[in-house]
């Protein structure tokens, strides 16, 4: 049996007045694989621990299959948890570790048939007689998975289960976990700060920032229609280009977004999305362009919807199948503080619902007092990263034409909320 997990307006404060989870409402459907994604300290583990019953819920409701479960003892929740540090008993063999929850559940009964069946499912039969110290990291995590699976729980909570493993093994085990949980049809809530892991595993991804849910949607949607600049910047590699711009919408001329030394001229006739930008006339906005929305090509090669700018090659990252070219276009990058750091440790008044502002560097809207100091950013050369093919000769110092696909332009307002495409915009259905 799989189960539905619902959180209704759930908050957690370890210290009075400081909510590390703030008004979280989230529904995980039966059999769904939902990933909780966010930077370190944003409250992900706390959410899992509240669902498992290891942490008290300060406010709000937890429903398991629609039934109020805030006070249900952990053992009665029929939920298994897998942790980052594997948490195996060092003095027990793999067999004893996997059988442990079964022995607790039914003392005196022989757990061997279930242990063997679980080990077969995970392909770890030959590890059963070894102690944790005799296992590699990946093997230990498989045994830990076995222990969580042995009781055939109706839901899985996984807290960064792969983060102690090397990159190759992580990718491998990631595929195994996806296969296993899909095969079993068990409801899974998986916590990670690794956006690539979240995108590849989740039926849906819930992005958390400072204890506040930012967006919950399919991986395709959070990438293509990020609700705000935080989600846009947190998801996708390389990070989306975010530039400070000003909308220019003269009554008698073409609309454009001024980026400092250059401007993006919006193609005529204006698309429905671009028409909506008229209300931003004269305002500072943040322009978001993913690296694949720009190509190195001369103006004469422009397709409908593309605008020409130029960029000075500053740095080239060769990656084998592709190249990431860093250009200087004379624009100012917009900063997204708290992207990699936890929420500010400042007490906030109770019952506050609003997320702290996403941006600090935009004028004329001065940063409110509770805005955290900007986190030190890794200084990358240039202001625009373009993803291109290895066959282009991109020498640092060359001034090259760039075609920007404005059908893939994101515009965020001064608070960091997406205004274009419009918030109600939907992606076309792939099956259509
Ligand atoms: N037992 C506790 N007592 C007080 N504060 C706590 C406790 N556990 C967690 N916190 C604080 O709550 C906030 C959220 O922590 P949590 O572990 O849920 O975040 P996280 O997103 O899982 O982080 P990470 O990815 O680093 O594990 C942090 O600021 C943390 O310091």
Structure notes:
By secondary structure, the chain is α+β, with helices and mostly antiparallel strands. The chain has two domains: 5-224, Rossmann fold (3-Layer(aba) Sandwich); 239-420, no CATH class. The chain is built from nine helices and 21 strands. Strand 11 and strand 12 (256-258) form a beta hairpin. Helix 2 (94-105) runs parallel beside helix 4 (137-150). The radius of gyration is 25 Å and the shape is elongated. The two termini are 33 Å apart. Residues 340-377 have low confidence and may be disordered. Residues 14, 20, 38, 40-46, 193, 342 line the site of adenosine-5'-triphosphate.
Spell out the blueprint of helices and strands.
Elements: E1 5-15, E2 18-28, E3 33-37, H1 44-52, E4 59-64, E5 67-68, E6 79-82, H2 94-105, H3 112-122, H4 137-150, E7 155-159, H5 167-184, E8 187-192, H6 195-201, E9 204-209, E10 212-217, H7 219-224, H8 229-234, E11 241-248, E12 256-258, E13 263-265, H9 272-275, E14 284-289, E15 294-296, E16 306-318, E17 323-328, E18 384-388, E19 399-405, E20 410-412, E21 418-420
Parallel strand pairs: 3-8, 3-9, 6-7, 7-8
Antiparallel strand pairs: 1-2, 1-4, 4-5, 9-10, 11-12, 11-14, 12-13, 14-20, 15-19, 16-17, 16-19, 17-18, 20-21
The structure holds adenosine-5'-triphosphate.
Adenosine-5'-triphosphate binds at residues 14, 20, 38, 40-46, 193, 342.
Region (Disordered): 330-380
Organism: Streptomyces roseirectus
InterPro entries: AAA+_ATPase, ABC_transporter-like_ATP-bd, ABC_transporter-like_CS, ABC_transpr_MalK/UgpC-like, Mo/tungstate-bd_C_term_dom, P-loop_NTPase, Transp-assoc_OB_typ2
């Amino acid at each position: 049996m799989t189960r539905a997990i619902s959180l209704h307006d759930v908050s957690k404060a370890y210290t009075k007045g400081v909510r590390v989870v703030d008004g979280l409402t989230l529904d995980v459907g039966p059999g769904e694989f939902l990933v909780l994604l966010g930077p370190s300290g944003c409250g992900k583990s706390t959410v899992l621990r509240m669902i498992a019953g290891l942490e008290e819920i300060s406010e709000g409701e937890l429903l398991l299959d629609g039934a109020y479960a805030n006070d249900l003892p952990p053992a009665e929740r029929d939920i298994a948890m897998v942790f980052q540090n594997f948490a195996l008993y060092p003095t027990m063999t793999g067999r004893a570790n996997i059988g442990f929850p079964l022995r607790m559940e039914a003392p005196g009964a022989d757990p061997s048939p279930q242990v063997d069946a679980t080990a077969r499912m995970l392909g770890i039969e030959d590890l059963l007689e070894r102690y944790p110290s005799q296992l590699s990291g990946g093997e230990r995590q498989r045994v830990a998975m076995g222990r969580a699976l042995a009781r055939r729980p109706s839901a899985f909570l996984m807290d960064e289960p792969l983060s102690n493993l090397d990159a190759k093994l992580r990718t491998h085990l990631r595929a195994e976990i996806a296969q296993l949980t899909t095969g079993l049809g068990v409801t899974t809530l998986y916590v990670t700060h690794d956006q690539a892991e979240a995108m590849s595993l989740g039926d849906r991804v819930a992005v958390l920032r400072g204890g506040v849910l930012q967006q919950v949607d399919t991986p395709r949607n959070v990438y293509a229609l990020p609700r705000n600049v935080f989600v846009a910047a947190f998801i996708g590699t390389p990070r989306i280009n975010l530039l400070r711009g000003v909308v220019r919408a003269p009554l008698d001329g073409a609309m454009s977004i001024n980026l400092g030394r250059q401007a993006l001229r919006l193609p005529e006739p204006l698309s429905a999305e671009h028409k909506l930008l008229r209300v931003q006339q004269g305002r500072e906005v943040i322009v978001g362009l993913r690296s694949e929305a720009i190509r190195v090509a001369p103006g004469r090669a422009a397709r409908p919807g593309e605008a020409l700018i130029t960029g000075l090659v500053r740095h080239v990252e060769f990656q084998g199948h592709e190249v990431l070219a860093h250009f200087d276009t004379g624009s100012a990058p917009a900063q997204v503080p708290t992207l990699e750091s936890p929420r500010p440790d400042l007490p906030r008044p109770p019952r506050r619902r609003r997320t702290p502002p996403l941006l600090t560097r935009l004028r004329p809207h001065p940063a409110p007092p509770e805005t955290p100091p900007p986190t030190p950013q890794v200084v990358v050369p240039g202001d625009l990263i373009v993803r291109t093919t290895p066959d282009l000769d991109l020498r640092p110092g060359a001034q090259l034409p760039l075609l920007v696909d404005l059908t893939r332009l994101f515009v965020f307002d001064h608070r960091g909320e997406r205004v274009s495409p419009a918030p109600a915009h939907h992606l076309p259905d792939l099956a259509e």
